[in-house]
Amino acid sequence: MSAVATAPPPTAAQDRPPLRTKARRWTFYILPVFTIAMIVYLASPVFLMIVYSFNKLNGERQIAKFTCCTLDWWKGYRQIPDLNEALVTSLKVAIPSSIMAATLGSLIGLVLGRYPFRGRSLVNFVIFLAIAIPEIVLGSSLLSMFVQVNTSRPLGATVTIGYATILFSHIAFSIPFVAITVRARVQGLDRSLEDAAQDLFATPLVAFYKITLPLIFPGIVAGFLLSFVLSLDDFVITNFVHGQTNTFPTWVFGATRLGMPPQVNVWGSILFGAGLLLAGINLFFSSRRARV
Asked: Which domains does the chain have, with CATH numbers?
């Protein structure tokens, strides 16, 4: 006779009826709705800028009325030489100032995060003060310093108000942001990794380049990107020290008096897209490092 398969007897867990999911109260949705509303509120100016870069105009100045749609401004995004020159100047300032700020700020952050010394609390206070001070105060102070240098001429030195003063000012206000970012990264490091490297006969310099630098490098990159963005969109401090040299923000401010050309929206959209691309690349490599 063939064996007949029988189903196992039901257990107590199977006899138990399924649990009802508890209905969510309306208060559960307050925080998600508030978060989405804030994101939409903060992002709406950027999306409006992108939309108005396709606005069809009768003239060459931006108006509030939106008429869809045209690609003329994207095709002729380089038709205003002064705007192109101002954008190039902004990049010429932002890139070297970010590199210098990332280098100097990383060294300061490394010292503050690792080595105890007399006066460290004072240095921390000065760095926080440089961040907390209003930009209008910092800009007027920098302008007064440059004027004083030209008046007194120490060692025969003079400062031309223009590109050099913009570059120096951007380096000055970017360093504290990099220093704080790198200091936070350094304080979270495990010193035992460097000690283990030196126990394996690595010199302090080799241990720094092989262990410390790769560990704090994400903080350095974050500080560099932060200082780059701050330099690219700074207006208040630059407005004090730019002289006859225009950056992208100062040119746009001057153009608003007569009417802003739609090419500004095009360049703003391009810069926004470049920022999204950099953020995506950073997120991609961060996720790869996390998986490794």
From this structure: 81-261 (1.10.3720.10)
Q: How far apart are CA 66 and CA 92, in angstroms?
A: 34
Residue 210 and residue 38: Cα distance in Å, rounded? 43
d(C-alpha 79, C-alpha 268), whole Å? 15
Would you state the structure tokens that stand for residue 149, as one six-digit string?
Answer: 């240098």
For 290, the enclosing helix (H) or strand (E) is helix 263-291
d(CA 128, CA 106) in angstroms, rounded, equals: 16
Q: Position 32: which residue type?
A: P
Task: Name the helix (H) or strand (E) containing 249.
Answer: helix 248-255
pLDDT digits (tens, 9 = 90+) for 82-127: 889 999 999 999 999 999 999 999 999 988 888 888 888 888 888 8
Instruction: State if pTM tops 0.70.
Output: yes
The model's confidence at residue 177, banded by pLDDT at 50, 70 and 90, is very high
Per-residue CA distances from 137 to 125, 246, 283 (Å): 17, 21, 36
- Residue 207 and residue 196 in contact, taking contact as beta carbons nearer than 8 Å: no
